[in-house]
Amino acid sequence: RLWQAVLAVVAIVLPMGLWTGLERAVGDTTEKLMPGETITLQSYPVADATLQFLPPGSGWSAGLSLSQHRIELDRDKVSATVQVDTAVDSLRRLLDRRADRFTATQPGVAVTNVREYHNQVNGLEGYRADLYGRNIAGTIVVVGSGGAAATVITIAPSGQFDDSTASADDFVSSFVLSGA
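Now predict its structure.
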């Protein structure tokens, strides 16, 4: 019985030790962005669309990822996900797909008040919807031109959006979208 107990301990402890060692070897999984650092995303799997933007303000960090078409940013309690797509026929349908995907992973969050959207700074047009949940609030904005589209989803704890937090409009205002 002793060898069975030893074997069980090894079977449990060895993978945990290996996992912990790998985490330490990889290091931090987030990267602090420098103020004024431009982010460039390319559509996937076909790199026909490119999106460049500046995260509004300072203090943003990005999760390390191999994705070239999507980035997740965090600052304090606010998070933003930005993505670029190509060959988009309907911005409204893209908004619906992004909203469905988000609400499927966030139980209790509803998408409301879908409406047309126009950014006064760069002229990008598309659709906007509000996100409401018991403890969170946010916005999804989908904009595009010529088949290229960009999506931004901003989320914060309920009551945390104010003049000091970055809104979806702040992100879209810096978007430079090109391609088809």
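Helices lie at 2-26, 91-105, 168-173.
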